[in-house]
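hey so u asked for the seq, here:
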Amino acid sequence: QVQLVESGGRLVQAGGSLRLSCAASGRIAYTYGMGWFRQAPGKEREFVAAISWSGLTTYYSNSVKGRFTISRDNAKNTVYLQMNSLKPEDTAIYFCATGDWGMVASYQRTKDNTYDYWGQGTQVTVSS
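ran it, structure tokens below
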């Protein structure tokens, strides 16, 4: 069984930066990718970023491309989301997730139904 625990969310002013962490426990196969999703009040959960086990393949939503960076440290079983130039519209609960990329097409790696395990989320609030 895989467990994911996010941390690092807090209140920050617009233009500021945050780094979220997602610590994983349990056995994660090398075919598993890691993703970050977010859900704002009254909105559906949306894809933010994802990274392969090797770290060589990454995906970003258009809304965060150029501002957010996803990375991972497999020795620590941790995935990070560095968020710069934050905007009020980035306010949301941020979730990390992991799922098997081995049998899915590339476009499915940004879909939440590809991911089997989810963390409890961490709140990010960006004030204007």
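The two ends are 40 Å apart (CA to CA). The chain has a mean pLDDT of 96.
lmk if thats what u needed
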